[in-house]
Amino acid sequence: GEFMTLGGIISPHDAWLIIRGLRTLEIRMDRVASSTAKVVAFLEQHPGVAKMYYPFSKSHPQHDLAVRDMKKGTGQFSILLNAESLEKADIFLDAMKRFLLACSWGGYESLAFPTCALYDSQNYGKTTLPWTLVRFYVGLEDPDVLIADLDQALNKMMS
C-alpha cells in the first residue's frame, strides 16, 4: 500500500533530515543511555514504584543477556506505580511537568505513556497490561531535573 502511494524512495528533504540527524546520533544516544541509568536507579528505590522493567537494571531477569548482547541501554523503560487507585495514578501523571504524555519515541524530549490513558477508550478492554503501567522515554534533558520531577510527582501520588 505505502509503496504504491508514496513511491520507492524518500524525498530529498527527508533524506537530508536523516543524514543531519545521523551526524549527532551517537552523542545523543550516549546522553540518553547515561541519563536513563540515573533515572532508573532513582526510581528503583522510590516507594511509589512497585516494579521496574528495564533490561539494564540488575533486578531484571534478563540483565545478563542485555549486558552480553548490547553495549548500552536505551531511553525506554516501564514502571508499575504503587498506586491504590486510578485517581492516584492520575495525580502522578498530572503532577509531572518535565515528561510529556505522548507515545512517540526517539525525540529529544522525555515522554511518558500510561496504560490508564486507555481507561476510558474502547481499547482498554483489549489490553492485558495493568492500569498502573507507565512507559517512559528519557530524552536529552538534565537527568537531575527529570529525577526531581518524578520525585515530586510520586510524592504527590503517595500523599
Task: Walk me through this protein's architecture.
- The protein has 159 residues and is of the alpha+beta class.
- It has 6 helices and 5 strands; from the N terminus they run αααβαβαβββα.
- It is 44% helix and 14% strand.
What is the N-to-C succession of helices and strands? Answer: HHHEHEHEEEH
Spatial order of the strands in the main sheet?
1-2-5-4-3
Secondary structure class reads: alpha+beta
Inertia-based shape: globular
Distance between the termini: 51 Å
Low-confidence parts, pLDDT < 50 over ≥5 residues?
none
Number of strands: 5
Number of helices: 6
Proportion in helices: 40-55%
Binned strand content: 5-15%
The overall pLDDT average reads: 89
Radius of gyration: 18 Å
* Biggest sheet record: 5 strands, mixed
Question: How would you summarize this macromolecular structure in one to three sentences?
Answer:
The protein is of the alpha+beta class. Helix content is 44%, strand content 14%.
